[in-house]
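Q: How would the C-alpha cells look for this protein?
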Amino acid sequence: MAAQKGKREGFRQVLAASVFILPNILGFAVFTAGPVLYSFVMSFTNESVLRTVPFRFVGFENYLSILGDKTFWLYFVNTVYFMLGIPVSILLSLGLAVLLNQKLKGILAFRTLLYLPTFVAGVAVLLLWKNLFNPEHGAINAFLDWAGQSLGMSGYELPRWLSSTKNIFGLDVESVGFNPKQLGIGAREAILLMGLIGGMGGGNMLLYLAALTNVPEELLEAAQLDGASPWKRFWKVTWPQLAPTTFLIVVLSVIGGFQGGFESARILTGGGPSGTTTTLAYYIYQKAFQEYQIGYASAVAWFLFAIIFTLTLINWKIGAKQEAI
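A: Here is the predicted structure in C-alpha cell form.
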C-alpha cells in the first residue's frame, strides 16, 4: 500500500510539474521546432508564395542549384570577408579586459561605459554609423579631410564608404575573383570597421574579464618572484588560463559571423552597392520574403547550417587538442 501511495504521489508531482512547463513546451514546439522542421521539409520542394508553378517535391535539386549559384558564392565571400575582423576583435576585447582588470580607482565606471553600447538598440546604432559614414557630410570623412589638410596633403580622394564597391583585396563585384579596378576602401571596410569598434567592448570583453578574475594570484606572484616581466607573466601564466574562454569566444564568433550581417545590410545599404554587403543571412531573407522562393531559401538556410556545424566540429576538435596539451 505504501509503495502504491508513493507512486501515486510521484505521478501527481510529475503531472503538476508538466502543467507548469507545458506553456514553454508548446511555445518551443510552435515557434521554434515547428518552423525548423517546416523549413527542412520545404528545402526539398519548389514551394513559392506566388504559386506560379504547382507544388512538388524536387529532392536535392535546390541543394545542387546552390553549388552552381554564382550569387550564393559571391555572398558567401562577403560573409567571410566580414569575419576577417574576428581575430582583431578578439584581440581588442582581450586588451580592454586586461586594462579594465587593473585595480585602479574608478575602473568600474570605465567598464560600464565600454559595455553601455550593448544595451542600445541595434537599429539606432546603425543609423548613427550611417550618418558617420556619409561621404559628403559625415564626421569620419570630415576628420580625414582635416587630417589630410593638417599634414599638407593634396589631391587625395576621400572614401565613399557605404556607396562604394571598392575593397582592400580588390574583389570583383560580378564574380569570385580579383579585379584591380576594385582596389580601395568601400562599403565592406565600413561595416568591418563598425563591427570591430562595436564588438571589442561587448560580451567578449566581459567573458575575458570574468576569466581574468579566476587566474590564481599565487601563480602570478610566484612568477613575479622568479623575476618574470609583466609580459612573460601574461604569456606564460595568464594566457594559458584563458584558453577555454578564448576557445568559447572563437566558436561563438564563427557561428555569429556566418549568421550575422542581416541588420547592417538591411539598414545601412540594402545589401548594396551591387550586392557587396549582402551576406548569406540577408540572401536568405531576399529569397524568402522578396522573391518568395521559400523552398530555395530553406535550402540555403540548411546549407548554411551544414557549414556552421562542420566548422564548429572542427573548432571543437582543435580546441580539445589544445586543452589536452
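Residues 43-324 form a domain with the MetI-like fold fold (CATH 1.10.3720.10).

The chain has one domain: 43-324.

Upvote if useful.
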